[in-house]
Amino acid sequence: MNFLFYVISGISLGSIYAIIALGYTMVYGIAKMLNFAHGDVIMVGAYISFCATSYWGMSPFMSVIVSMLVCTVLGVVIERLAYRPLRQATSLAVLITAIGVSYLLENLALLIWTSNPKVFTSIVGTGSVKLFGGQMSITTVTLVTIAVCVAIMIGLTLFTSKTKMGKAMRAVSEDKGAAQLMGINVDTTISVTFAIGSGLAAVAGVLLCSAYPTLTPMTGFMPGIKAFTAAVFGGIGSVPGAMIGGILLGIIEIFGKAYISTQLSDAIVFAVLIIVLLVKPTGLLGKPINEKV
Amino acid sequence: MKKERLSSAPKKPMTKSARDTVTCYGIVIVAYIVISILLNGGHVNSSMKGLLIPICAYIVMALSLNLTVGILGELSLGHAGFMSVGAFSGVVAAMSLKGAIASTPLLLAVSMLIAAGCAAIAGFLVGIPVLRLNGDYLAIVTLAFGEIIKNLINCLYVGHDADGLHFAFLKTSDALGLADGGKVIINGPMGVSGIPKLSTFTAGFILILITLFIILNLVHSRQGRAIMAIRDNRIAAESVGINVTQYKLMAFVTSAALAGASGALYAMNFTTVVSSKFNFFTSIIVLVYVVLGGLGNMWGTIISATLLTLLPELLRKFGDYRMLIYALVLIIVMVVSNNANFKAFFTRLFSKEKSADVPSADADTKGGAANE
Amino acid sequence: MKKFISLALCLALMVGCMAGCGSKGNNTSATSASPAASASATAIKIGGTGPLSGAAAIYGTAAKNGAKIAVDEINAMGESIQFDLKYEDDEHDAEKAVNAYNTLKDWGMQISLGSVTSKPCEATSALTYEDRIFALTPSASSTAVTEGKDNQFQMCFSDPNQGTASAQYISDQKLGTKIAVIYKNDDVYSKGIYDKFASKAKELGLNIVSATTFTDDSQTDFTVQLSEAQKAGADLLFLPMYYQPASLILSQAKSMNYAPKFFGVDGMDGILTMEGFDASLAEGVMLLTPFNADSTDEKTQSFVKKYKELYNETPNQFAADAYDCVYALYSACKIAGITSDMDASSICDKMVATFTDANFKFDGLTGTGVTWDKTGAVSKTPKGMVIKNGAYAGM
């Protein structure tokens, strides 16, 4: 029974990582950049939702919509001002700029919302569903998170395979130059990618704070890193991979704490990641890289 | 960026590298002399004086990371881990050998050597699995190792008494079983307290010179050329019989050892050090120095490490807006210095000025621009 | 060539910044002085470092705000002693704290408020000791801060003191037979309290059935730690940590239907004033704290009112400790006859003599009749509080 309890806790934690990882992997897959500011967009999304419900008197559902809108705009603006000028630059230069953006968002949030933690009211309530005649329970937040994750996963997969824009995205991710020659507007495509990624970040932020309700300017940073790890774990760029990677990471973290040592839980998570990457160098579901000779 | 170096190298390989080498040593030595004169004259305020040793340590960190990122061409996000290994092993060495070695400079030198040795071992152990991977996957694994090192040192207890060193893991300092008069050196998450202040500005300067000497000699040697060949095209390098793993490991371990020495210099400047200091943040900051200074460009790295360490201090007058402005400066500098349009504009500006006296500079830029 | 350009640009920007801060700096130093405009000329310069940005910003900001209120009040009295206060950001990092300290030294700091958090304060206290600047830290509670330094004093209880006091309290009041502890394993404060608590508990025969940890990197999910405590049948959960992770633990314990007694330390103070916190979660939580924002005494009420007006938040113990620090410095300065033209080291000698004098007693928000001993530790006794109906009540 304990084992099952830990599996459920692991899935709860992992579903949060998964939903953040989906945004990460989406941006990485198309734009081929590690967007370290993603975690901070999540934090902004959570703050907007918090403000919308507590100060502007909106319903929880409306607050999510508002926060998605704000984050989408924010993502596009960041992309336009900070990343687009670097389209031709090395990926390292973009990485450093992303870190700059991450600092910027954290410090802006610190000035606007102060360092005092806000307690986020869960948008889906704090209830839980009983399993096995009341011996186990799983919170509604987890159920909602998993449902949203699956919905997003299916949505993204359909979007990239069926729609014109989605096909353009895949083309851009394969080869920017060739895509441009085929008449695809690379800049617009990447902007749309960021818009979607940031909109998803807002949802992730709201769900992250519904599950773990303290909200500070640094809230997004560590979950962001963990989700990035999860995305790599599942094979970065692969949408189902991010989902599986996130959930597995959560389970590993909980198991590491429960069966080995709470003091070493971080080391265990990363050690497992290293082992997986050594066995499967492109993650669980990543496409193998073909080396051109 | 990589291609540029490849294409410009055959044109005049000696002059360019020789010029860079002279610039590197020149900058460091001139800076040292100028600062020493200012220090003796009492013209340096305590804020700048306090920054001298950290700047030296960060320069060494950035130079050593540039060996991995710029010369070897592998992105490392866990370089602070090696700094951490060096800092803690150096401090343990210094505090346990304090009785045996009376001379402070010698004690510092010995501790730094031990620190470099320990970091090199860590680099070797990490390097074997890491260097089998490529690209972003390699980067994430270095990040993972950085975090693991941080976590492990956080659970490590080391004490010293008449019998020698005692180690304990995951317990408390009581588990060390120290004899009377023994001293706990590393106290798990509480880190180290009461570190003797052994680091001096001169020591930092010498360490930078040694680092430069090691890196530049490596780069200009046969091994260095092999390493750069692997960076530019691994498969081609392999096909001409270069042992890829061996050379990669060589660069990686050297880089780790230098980071370790820098960690010892850093730790022995402050009375206290904790493992959580050497986190992902620190690794990233050092990476920023390297990217801004230019991959493979040693003198650029020295300057960018100095400027970026100074920047947050210079921004103190902005109060609450300090870190916000720091972030903005970082973004603007990255965007402006890497954007093709801005670059073309400045290239024109500079080539006009320079074409009269240094005609070769023009050819150099053209080669670079054509390959972008 | 390209690199040269980028560096030249970088340099140009830096120079621009320096020029910018030069002019701006003058403005801020002029405006940051006290309301009594003439004060700055004859004011004693006190400085402190604390995290004003980054993850620990809340503690530094609170201390800075608390100290600022005290300084403004003192200056408004218009007596001979006037203060000029300056806080510098140390990002909760020893290296940055040393930089911040040196900046303050260049500014001409005569008395130091140390650093807000323990590790940075360890680094700066070594320097204040060397430079002979008197330091009274509001909240750096580790013993390494004051150890072997005659001019370092603390306003808060030391960590070991809290650990032993908590164990003593639990044993005296027979609060629990099986105790579980969750502590933060990369935090000097939390680990420092836990170590002493564990050894004292052993001595008193308290039974610690489970001790689990978390770190900065994993302070979201506590289900494993809680379920281990629950499995071990713990009826009291000791939480030596700050209120932010504690609030998560309380809410997760509730959703697991695990309801032991919760016992916190002074870092728990502030939990009730978190914006949006459901106070019913903290019902029955016990804590040792020197400060109570709901207290009815006049001093506390006027401080809390001012703080709310100025910063729109309820002050926590960091703010109160810093406020007390400034007043303690004020009364000591008055007794020792400190004037702003004295240099730091002669101020230091006089202040040390005053603070260690048996007759020097201080009444503040966080304690009355407070004295200091030669080691620099404060004599406050932790008060046991219990949260009832969303407010503190004496136990």
Task: Please sum up the structure shown.
With 293 residues, chain A is mainly alpha-helical. Chain A contains eleven helices and four strands.
Characterization of the model:
The complex is a heterotrimer of chains A (293), B (372) and C (395). Chain A is mainly α and 293 residues long. Helices cover 72% and strands 4% of the residues of chain A. Chain A has a domain at 18-115 and 123-220. Chain A is built from eleven helices and four strands, in the order ααααβββααααβααα. Chain A has a two-stranded antiparallel ribbon. In chain A, a hairpin with a 4-residue loop joins strand 2 (128-131) and strand 3 (136-139). The longest helix of chain A is centred in the first third of the chain and has 30 residues, at 2-31. Chain A starts with a helix and ends in a 14-residue tail after the last helix. The model of chain A has no long low-confidence stretch (mean pLDDT 89). Chain B has one domain. A three-stranded antiparallel sheet of chain B has the order 2-1-3. In chain B, helix 5 packs antiparallel against helix 10. Chain C contains twelve helices and 14 strands. A seven-stranded mixed sheet of chain C has the order 7-6-8-9-10-13-14, sandwiched between helices. A five-stranded parallel sheet of chain C has the order 2-1-3-4-5. In chain C, a hairpin with a 2-residue loop joins strand 13 and strand 14 (391-394).
Sequence-ordered SSE layout with sheet pairings:
The complex is a heterotrimer of chains A (293), B (372) and C (395).
Chain A (H helix, E strand, L loop, with lengths): L1 H30 L6 H17 L5 H24 L7 H23 L4 E2 L8 E4 L4 E4 H23 L1 H11 L1 H6 L4 H26 L2 E2 L5 H14 L4 H22 L4 H15 L14
Antiparallel strand pairs in A: 1-4, 2-3
Helix pairs in contact in A: 1-5, 1-8, 1-9, 1-10, 2-3, 2-4, 2-8, 2-9, 3-8, 5-6, 5-8, 6-8, 9-10, 10-11
Chain B lengths: L1 H7 L4 H29 L4 H26 L7 H19 L6 H27 L4 H20 L1 E6 L2 E6 L13 E5 L13 H19 L2 H11 L1 H6 L4 H24 L12 H14 L4 H17 L7 H17 L1 H15 L4 H13 L1
Antiparallel strand pairs in B: 1-2, 1-3
Helix pairs in contact in B: 1-15, 2-7, 3-7, 3-10, 3-11, 3-12, 4-5, 4-6, 4-10, 5-10, 7-10, 8-10, 11-12, 14-15
Chain C lengths: L1 H30 L7 H4 L1 E7 L6 H21 L5 E7 L4 H14 L3 E5 L2 H14 L2 E4 L14 E3 L4 H14 L5 E7 L3 H17 L2 E8 L8 H9 L4 E4 L3 H13 L5 E4 L21 E4 L8 H14 L5 H20 L7 H13 L5 E3 L2 E4 L12 E6 L2 E4 L1
Parallel strand pairs in C: 1-2, 1-3, 3-4, 4-5, 6-7, 6-8, 8-9, 9-10
Antiparallel strand pairs in C: 10-13, 11-12, 13-14
